[in-house]
Amino acid sequence: MKEFIEKGQTALGIEFGSTRIKAVLIGPDYTPIASGAHDWENRLENGIWTYTLDDIWTGIRDAYAKLAADVQDKYGLKLKTVGAIGISGMMHGYLPFDANDNLLTSFRTWRNTITEQAAAKLTDVFKCNIPQRWSIAHLYQAILNKESHVKDIAFLTTLAGYVHWKLTGQKVLGIGEASGMFPIDSNTLNYNSRMMEQFKQLIAEYNFKWSLDSILPKVLTAGEEAGTLTAEGAKLLDPTGTLQPGIPMCPPEGDAGTGMTATNSVAVRTGNVSAGTSVFAMVVLDKELSKVYTELDMVTTPTGKPVAMVHCNNCTGDLDAWIKLFNEVLVEFGVNVPKYKLYDQLYFKALEADTDAGGLVHYNYFSGEPITELSEGRPLFARLPDAKFNLKNFMRSLVYSTMATLKIGMDILTEKEGVKVEKLLGHGGLFKAKGVAQKFLSAALNVPVAVMETAGEGGPWGMALLAAYMKQKGENETLEDFLANKVFASAKYDIVSPEPDDKKGFSTYLNRYIGGLAAERAAVEHIVR
User: Fold this and answer.
1) pLDDT of residue 457
2) Which domain covers residue 174, as residue numbers?
3) Number of compact structural domains in the chain
4) Read out DSSP for 247-302?
5) Which listed residue, of 61, 236, 399, 461, carries a Cα 20 to 30 Å from 15's Cα?
6) Model pTM score
7) Where does the Carbohydrate kinase FGGY N-terminal domain lie (predicted)?
């Protein structure tokens, strides 16, 4: 492996997740050979979920430094170059810059639910669902709010697009990431021209000097070159000066696109579930939906194929908070349990529980949840007076809560639109405890759920694969063929099918969950900051 590293026969993927920035280096066989990570948290400032630019650069440098240290420890080498680099991150959000490259307002992340007016108007005008977290919704809401910075916008991008721009000088996006800024036409592999014109007419009265097509990043598809790491970019990533410039970089992608790649779910009629701080299911469609649903987002694969996306803002945040609390209790008694062991022990405890969680219900809403029409969140726990209140039921209720809202959205796709899903591939932190969330999700969605050995690697590994595809693809080799024939040809899957008792139990839980949403709405209204 040392020879491959020295010759740059590797690929590096770096992904900005909600709570962790992770870098993964893969070798010629596409398996991870080194990694590094940096934990970070968004902050709520003046009612806006955000990260600072300093947070971004401190985080990526730390993650890269730890990856380089991992290479040094394992192989005795300083990491001077790699074959290709890809940057990915949380999709959507709002990062507007002026002509002097100054950020005009704080970074507004996907987590914000502050664009309801704009999203509703754009959905009506475009006849296409525009979720609140999309960049175009944030832009139009800022216009409606008469925010003074809007007139000065010269460039609007996402987190992944911003980092890629600073590393390469290129204002571009992968098409999957771009589809979360503005609707994409899968026939032209570009922003939808009809909707572009409609937006132009919608804002004509404001007489801005810019036009939308002039401030959005250029759209690229998987396999295209997206610039090279500049000398300035290399210093931003590795201030020690060890990493050399000139490394080719692939189009920056969103966490949805990297999730599809990491689960080999980019072909028609394939699907995956990515579960971490947020949770979303992606199904690659073979035909258009019959109507517009505000619960379903239309995005694309990294090659531009249409995808129906069920996105939920909340997944593991509340579960993580409870496990941290349990750890505090242990520490108070002088007991130190490794983080992974505590998670595994508590997750596996859920397998022993009553299938309906014994009358316990959790609402994991740290932030607003459009699918259930909540503008804000209040994590909430409730139980029936005669509930079987014990640890195993408590944990099952917590895990169930991570997928309850996803189930509500997926029912629209499968029941109202008749979309057939033969199986879903699961990846992300929720699936690390083998067989727990996978078993429950299969029962919840009534579909087999497969998890690969690489499930915990998730997005950054998927981004590294996209970088490798750009560098190594054969003539006319599609991403689908590259993944199926080279990356996943011998992949090992663990597939779980829905069990009748679990299906019945989750259904009972979900009925309680839906019925209690009125209490969650009341909590949002009456428990004020």
Assistant:
1) 62
2) 2-264
3) 1
4) -BBPPPEEHHHHHHHHTT--STT-EEEEESSSEEEEEE-SS--SS--TT-EEEE-T
5) 399
6) 0.83
7) 11-237
